Amino acid sequence: MHVHEFFSHATAALLWDLPLPSVPDGIDVSVIAPHRAPSGRGVRGHQLAGAQVTTTEHDEGFSITSPGSTWAQLGAAVKHPYDLTALADAVIRTPRIPGPHGRLLRAAHSTVAELAVELGRGRRIGIRSLEEALHRARPGAASRPETWTRLTIVDAGLPEPTLDHDVYDERGVFIGCVDLAYVALKIAIEYEGDHHRVEAAQWARDIQKHDRLAELGWRVIRVTRADVFEHPGELVGRVRSALRSRA
User: Fold this and answer.
1) Does 35 share its domain with 128?
2) Which of 17, 37, 90, 199 has the most CB atoms within 10 Å of its CB?
C-alpha cells in the first residue's frame, strides 16, 4: 500500500473486530481525493472526500479509518437495520470484566455523540438508516446476537431490557453478569453462543450461575442462534410469557 492509502469500509470493520453479518470477498482500500482509487485483483478501491473520513493508525501499524468513520461508511453495504445497530453497539461498547473487582478492558472506540459528528460530515448513502441505528444503539451489548435479541423484543412491543447487568445476592456476593435483564421482575435473558456449549469451563460456570440465579428467584430464558435468527416469534412468546407470569 502507498502512504496515502488506508483500509476502510468492511475491511476496516473486520480489523476493528466489528460484527459484520458476513465477510465479503476482497479488501477495501481508500484514498482521499484527488488521489485515484486503487485497483487490482481482490481490491475494492474508493476515492473519498477528505471532509467525510477520519483515519488513524491501527495498533498493528497500518492506516485505517477510525471505528466511528468506518461505521458511517457502512450505510449502503449493511442492509438489515438490526445489523447497523449492532455495529454501532460494538463501536460504543466498553468491554469489561464484571463483578465487584472487575475492570474496564479498554475504552470505547467512540461515543454516540462522536458517531453523530461522523454522520454530519457530509452526504452519505443510507444516512436515514444510520441515523435510526444510532438512535437505537446501546453500550451494553457484547455481541451481534445480543443486539438482535434486544431489538426483536422491543419491536414486538415489549419493554426494553437492561443490558450487561451484574447480579448480587442478599449478602452482596457476586453471582454473575446476565446479558439482558428485567431487573425488578428478576427475569434474565441469556444468549448462548457456541462457546457456551463447547467450552467445558464456560459450560460449568453457566450451570453454576443459572442455579444460583434460580435460588435467588430469577427466571432465566436461555436463547440460541436459532431462536434469534430463525424463530423470533417463539423467542418473543417466551419473553412475553415470563413478563406476564411476573406481573
Assistant:
1) yes
2) 90
Indicate the burial class of 19 (C-beta count within 10 angstroms; 0-12, 13-18, 19 or more). middle
pTM: predicted TM-score of the whole model, two decimal places:
0.93
- Tens digit of pLDDT for each residue in 222-247? 999 999 999 999 999 999 999 999 98
> 182: domain range?
144-246
Q: For residues 67 and 165, state if they share a domain.
A: no
44 and 96 in a common domain: yes
Rg (CA), the chain: 20
C-alpha distances in angstroms, 227 versus 102, 193, 222, 232? Answer: 31, 11, 9, 6
- Run of H or E including 11: helix 9-15
Domain end marker among 114, 136, 158: 136
pLDDT in tens, 119-161: 998 888 899 999 999 999 999 999 999 999 999 999 999 999 9
Q: Domain total for the chain? A: 2
